[in-house]
Write a structure and sequence with these properties.
Elements: H1 4-8, H2 15-23, E1 27-28, E2 32-33, E3 42-44, E4 49-54, E5 64-70, E6 85-91, E7 93-99, E8 106-111, E9 115-118, E10 123-128, E11 135-141, H3 143-150, H4 153-157, H5 171-174, E12 179-181, E13 189-191, E14 194-195, E15 204-205, E16 214-219, E17 226-232, E18 236-237, E19 240-241, E20 248-253, E21 256-261, E22 270-274, E23 279-280, E24 287-292, E25 298-304, E26 328-329, H6 336-349
Parallel strand pairs: 1-4, 13-16
Antiparallel strand pairs: 2-23, 3-4, 4-5, 5-11, 6-9, 6-11, 7-8, 7-10, 9-14, 12-13, 15-16, 16-17, 17-25, 18-24, 19-26, 20-23, 20-25, 21-22, 21-24
Helix pairs in contact: 2-3
Length: 360
């Protein structure tokens, strides 16, 4: 296997960037991807399918996303790796087999809207159960950190170590149902190995975030990475907040826009227009605020390189006022033009603004 130490020593590229070149699939670098289903992919020898990397501006090198496609009736090669991976099915129906060396094989059946994570360094293989159209999926991984740290692809992709403390290989273990964890985030964290349908999942009320928001956070297979699903109604918008780098926001429903700006630089704010299957990433500690002037509730999935169960990140509460030590701007403290612009956007798109705290 090629030597990343030799290739990256004194190079202008990181080991991870050199690895990407060697994989010979497209690499997208941007602030937003308008439609993940339309992204052009390339043939990937490692899996036998089609794929592309997306290194979004806001990720800050903490993580990446991998968009993959399985041909109709096809399958990918089995793989394992020493980085974590959370997978969301953008379109299609199929199955994934999972096993540790010497363990039992478990098959997980999924569909469009399913969310799951593969156990660390366990073998896994994806299959397309449809004969008439491809499957497309997106994965969040912490490969950039792991590859830059170890600089040895043989260690990362051909390591026989079994993380039995995370997954010992029993099918019954993988298939156990989910539960809310009352000790974390006021009971809004759902721990499960598999969420069958994010479109049908009913998040919990999270009024602290404003706009009649509903949010549930997900923790799975004892990984560090996590995710959450959030929804807010027509004619509403959430309060601005900020957090660490790498939260990849994938829009599931709705049409709207978001503002993003660095601390103290609201005048330089960036506007992102989004719709179904758009993806963008707020940069580290940038304020960002989401608005729904469209004709349907706005629901999104956030794939994140941190979690809450093991307290590995020092993140402030994004539902608490920044004046009290949190990471949120309350409505009464936001720039007055924010609401005025939203009223105009609702008129343009035919929605009724429903923000009673502003008298609308």
């Amino acid at each position: 296997m090629k030597n990343l130490n030799d290739a990256s020593a004194f190079s202008q590229q990181s080991p991870y960037e050199i690895y990407q070149e060697w994989e010979e699939i497209p690499v997208y670098k941007d602030f937003i991807i308008p439609d993940l289903l339309k992204l052009k992919l390339g043939d990937w020898a490692r899996t036998g399918g089609k794929a592309a990397f997306a290194n979004m501006d806001g990720a800050g090198g903490t993580c990446d996303t991998l968009i993959e496609e399985i041909a109709p009736g096809g399958q990918l090669k089995p793989v394992r790796h020493m980085y974590e991976k959370a997978i969301f099915i953008l379109d299609g129906q199929g199955a994934t087999t999972i096993l540790n060396d010497g363990g039992k094989k478990h098959t997980l059946e999924w569909q469009k809207g399913s969310l799951f994570a593969t156990p660390l360094n366990a073998w896994h293989q994806h299959f397309n159960a449809q004969g008439d159209k491809p499957v497309r999926m997106i994965s969040l991984t912490d490969a950039p950190v792991i590859i830059n740290r170890y600089r040895n692809l043989d260690y990362i992709f051909n390591n026989s170590f079994v993380f039995a403390d995370r997954y010992s290989g029993g099918a019954d273990e993988w298939g156990k149902g989910g539960r809310y964890i009352p000790e974390i985030k006021k009971g809004r964290v759902w721990e499960s190995n598999f969420i069958a349908d994010l479109w049908g999942f009913q998040p919990k009320d999270y009024k602290e975030r404003g706009g009649d928001n509903r949010t549930t956070l997900f923790e799975f297979v004892d990984n560090t990475m996590s995710a959450h699903v959030s929804e807010f109604p027509i004619g509403k918008y959430k309060k601005a907040h900020r957090h660490g780098a790498g939260a990849h926001i994938v829009m599931l429903t709705g049409f709207g826009y978001s503002y993003l700006w660095p601390e103290g630089e609201y005048g330089t704010k960036r506007r992102v227009e989004w719709g179904r299957m758009s993806m963008f990433v707020p940069p580290m500690q940038w304020w960002h605020q989401h608005f729904n002037p469209g004709a349907e509730p706005a629901r999104y999935l956030a794939l994140k390189p941190w979690g809450f169960k093991f307290n590995v990140e020092d993140l402030k509460d994004t539902g608490e006022d920044v004046k009290k030590g949190g990471a949120q701007i309350e409505y009464e403290d936001q720039n007055p033009e924010i609401h005025k612009i939203f009223i105009d956007e609702c008129k343009i798109h035919g929605a009724d603004a429903r923000m009673p705290m502003f008298g609308t």
